[in-house]
Amino acid sequence: MASSQTPPTRAEYLAQPEIKELLEKRPEIKAFIDAHPEILLGREAYDMEDKKANAEYGDEVFDDESKPFPEMVLIQKYYYSTRPDTKVEDQNKRVMVAAVINDDYIEKRFQAIAQGPRDGNQYDDPEGCLKLPSSADPLNWKAMDGSYGKSSNRMTE
């Protein structure tokens, strides 16, 4: 198993009894994970990469959270810069993607920030979740909630 400083590997995460049991019951979640090896798995992996991305890009990154399955929150971090020297092809570039399964803290954060589906029936299209969101331009967000330039990580544990 991984040390407290290193998150579990993908194989270790998937071998955890509660995750393994869920994936046996929900093969569509396993198929989604298997189809996307770029997705980091678990809160520990997310936290580590989130810190790295924030250190590297500062306030020029933003999070997009979605819920492709009732048990999963998908968190993507995108680079967006207002600096005039930023190359167009670098704008809205995904710098990380992580899936967190059955994690109460991440679920509560998702509900508080994303105002996500609460009825248990309306979830995002799993493949659509991995595409750049149409509202990915943080300039549009400023008018909506004043969060321009801020990560959606507003809750702290």
List the helices and strands and how they pair.
Blueprint: H1 10-15, H2 17-25, H3 27-35, E1 40-41, H4 43-57, E2 61-69, E3 72-79, E4 93-101, H5 104-114, H6 126-129, H7 138-145
Parallel strand pairs: 1-4
Antiparallel strand pairs: 2-3, 3-4
Region (Disordered): 134-157
Describe what you observe in this structure.
This protein has 157 residues and is an alpha+beta fold. The chain has seven helices and four strands. It has helices at residues 10-15, 17-25, 27-35, 43-57, 104-114, 126-129, 138-145, and strands spanning 40-41, 61-69, 72-79, 93-101. The chain is globular, with a radius of gyration of 16 Å. The model is unreliable at 134-157 (pLDDT under 50). Residues 134-157 are annotated as: Disordered.
Give a brief outline of the structure.
The longest helix is centred in the first third of the chain and has 15 residues, at 43-57. With 157 residues, this protein is an alpha+beta fold.
